Amino acid sequence: MSHLLEARNLDKRFGAVTAAADISVTVAPDSVIGLIGTNGAGKTTFVNMVTGYLKPDKGRIYFEGRDITALHPRQVTRLGICRSFQIPQLYNSLSAYDNLIVALGIVLRNAKPAPWARAPRLVPGHDLPLADAAEALLERFDLGEFRDKPAGVLPEGVRKLLDIAMALANKPRVLLLDEPTSGVSSEEKFAIMDRVMSAVRAEGAAVLFVEHDMDIVARYAGRVLAFYEGRILADGAPDVVLADPQVREYVIGGQAEPKEVSHA
Amino acid sequence: MKKDRTPSLLLATLVALLILGLVLPEWRFLGTLAIGKGLTVLGLLLLLRTGLVSFGQGLYYCLGAYAAGTLGQFWGTTDALLLLVVAGLAAGLAAAILGILLAAYRGIFFSMLSLALSMILYGLLVKSAALGSTDGFNLPAPTLFGLPLVSHDSRYPLFVLACVLGVAAALAMHYYFRTPLGRLSPAIRDNEIRVEYLGASVRAAVHVKYVIAGILAGVGGALTGMTVGHIDPEMAYWTTSGEFVFVAILSGTGSVAAPFLGSFIFELVRTFAYEYSPNSWQLALGTAMLLIIVFLPAGLWSLVQRRRA
Q: What is the ipTM of this complex?
């Protein structure tokens, strides 16, 4: 059967550091996958390779059977593989609304059949005019009260949500969230994840999220990939992977229960 | 949503300018000159909003003037519209070619490379005896549809053309900033990575903006040439480009009308400073710049904004 996304034997080294060693992953449509591992285990490198920011030294990446290994981030994005960032990448001088207008405007512009052609009236995938599509995204992430504030002055949790909302502009088929709850207080984490997951699941996209909080992983992921020194240590259902002795020792840190794992 | 008042204000300004020009004939020359330079600064405003500082807009300013000048001098074309179109095309074509190189650079590298390219044109023109070398050459008086725009007793028609051109360019720029491509300007300035990760090519967008700025500078240079009646390689010299950056900072990037206001004030200060102290007029300009940077960090336009707020 054909997978939505497939990474085949990815290798990536930075000098003496192995960031990816023979990584092979397949992603089925509609799956929610948690990526866990200590800092430097290769999670973000994996995300960067899938989205075209880094080129693997070896191996190929396929999206719907098409080889996308050599594509630029903008080309990968247009295909429907979108991402959010550990540190929100926003347009700090623009308001939350204008951030989304820029994002959706790019989608609108990319929908033109030729550079000189008129852009369609409705944003593809959103089926709304530009301004309405932006308002709808704001509403979906409950960002209405921050609509006109510059992104640079928003609280971190709000910036995270806006960052993810922007990643939805291209109507992703695969959405990669890099630590969606990092930098957010532990009380807020579940609220953010609830909002993100309900907004994202409505899209019907496969979700891969990098996460250090095992409670979040156990609650939201349908499948967990545990990274260690550039390799995938374990791949399977959350209860199986999180209970795996190797994962407990190398990834989670040998603590008794996932619930007590520190959020660092 | 706030109503967009800029178009109606611009059109009102146009009417006011045309009336002022009619009753104050001695200001027509300065006004026309300020619009010629203001067009170039408008292009710089576009680049500045994209986070790019070009220290080489003199290249296109001079190229536009020389394209119009050669056409006028050697082929006898005097039709102002034709000359302006040719100037814009020549400058736009040059910007399209050089933009392939420049669009890959940012920050100080972009600034210095653009400066270097303008100095190449300066060097070429200085060595071109057929184009008058350092002296440049005179332009025939421009006409429009066979009617003279400048005569010994009136510069009003050329002033009218300049005002229409300036307001049209400002309006076009205003609407451009509302298109998806125009909105990429602040986005590129703030965060290039995110632009790429939303599916747009930063390099292509920068290239297009560079070409637009080049066209505006070319048209501005041709208009200035027609106004003064003379062009020389100084138009491509780095101090000319520096002057445009100076005016752009003086004006502020708050509005598409700011470059024209800034240009006008600049020419005004320069004219008076030159008249009253021919040996130290730069001192007066420098002082004016210093005061503006200290008291109006967002440029002259913040005076207008403050009043409207």
A: 0.89
